[in-house]
């Protein structure tokens, strides 16, 4: 489903990813961990097609198609839900208007039935309920004045409605409280299915107490230096990253 081969990428002309390999098959949940500054968010941004993130070598294929050649909207239409694909804040555009446009684009491209406004509202309200977000948030400007936890709930709500084939979430260390973490976990777990791949970039071992991954990868200095099963996350929690990176202490 997702095949990343020898990927090299730069941010503002600075090489960050230096030969990264990763394969994600349908049904699999992968966690990508690693010390601060190792390139985790860069990977998420490159796959999202964010401005200023440039692939300089290797390839990232989604169902055989090169992501580098797809616009962010085409990536969404192909069934990807990626970190930062959805703008952080769009003042003046309500959450509901935004969802309507995004769902029309994606469902249309995938040949799924169009939701009329009644269905859309029902689905959106149900998704809000699942993430404990009051339905009044549907009327507000996208992410406008949302707290960190509300933005996170909103993102997971969007993801649930989009029903992606592959979801990639970047869980930064920006101080999500335990409630928000559990919302992420609940949302991700509800999307687990044999047809769907999930990549969770995370700085938290704690999140993996709630989302048990099939595979854990350690990203360091722009490469995946170790892969294992869920037990690797526990080992990292006990031992840190130094035994893998050769550094005494790592953040
Ligand atoms: P992680 O998510 O693993 O903590 P990042 O991908 O955020 O790591 O960062 C990897 C490296 O890329 C860091 O050295 C960071 O300073 C650098 N970097 C990230 N974004 C930019 C940018 N926009 N301009 C310059 N350097 C950047
Ligand atoms: Mg970081
Ligand atoms: Mg990061």
UniProtKB/TrEMBL annotation:
Pfam families: ABC_tran
Entry-linked SUPFAM superfamilies: P-loop containing nucleoside triphosphate hydrolases
Coiled coil among keywords: no
CDD domains hit by this protein: ABC_FeS_Assembly
Single GO MF annotation: ATP binding
Sequence ranges assigned to domain ABC transporter in this UniProt record: 2-246
Annotated InterPro entries: AAA+_ATPase, ABC_transporter-like_ATP-bd, FeS-cluster_ATPase_SufC, P-loop_NTPase
Family: Belongs to the ABC transporter superfamily. Ycf16 family.
Protein name (record): Fe-S cluster assembly ATPase SufC
Organism: Alcanivorax profundi
Gene behind this protein: sufC
């Amino acid at each position: 489903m997702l095949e990343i081969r020898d990927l090299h990428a730069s941010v503002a002309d600075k090489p960050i990813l230096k030969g990264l390999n990763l394969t994600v098959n349908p049904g699999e949940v992968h966690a990508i961990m690693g010390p601060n500054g190792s390139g985790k968010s860069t990977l998420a941004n490159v796959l999202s097609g964010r401005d200023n993130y440039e692939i300089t070598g290797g390839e990232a294929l989604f169902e055989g198609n090169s992501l580098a050649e797809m616009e962010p909207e085409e990536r969404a239409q192909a069934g990807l839900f990626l970190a930062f694909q959805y703008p952080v804040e769009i003042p003046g555009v309500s959450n509901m208007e935004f969802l309507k446009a995004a769902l029309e684009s994606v469902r249309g491209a995938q040949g799924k039935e169009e939701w009329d406004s009644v269905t859309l509202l029902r689905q959106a309200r149900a998704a809000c309920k699942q993430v404990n977000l009051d339905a009044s948030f549907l009327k507000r400007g996208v992410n406008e004045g949302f707290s960190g936890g509300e933005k996170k709930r909103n993102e997971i709500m969007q993801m649930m409605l989009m029903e992606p084939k592959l979801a990639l979430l970047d869980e930064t260390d920006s101080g999500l409280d335990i409630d928000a973490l559990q919302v992420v976990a609940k949302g991700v777990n509800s999307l687990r299915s044999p047809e769907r791949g999930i990549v969770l970039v995370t700085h938290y071992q704690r999140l993996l107490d709630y989302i048990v991954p099939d595979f854990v990868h350690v990203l360091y200095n722009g490469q995946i230096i170790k892969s294992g099963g869920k037990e690797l996350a526990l080992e990292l929690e006990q031992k840190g990253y130094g035994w893998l990176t050769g550094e005494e202490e790592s953040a």
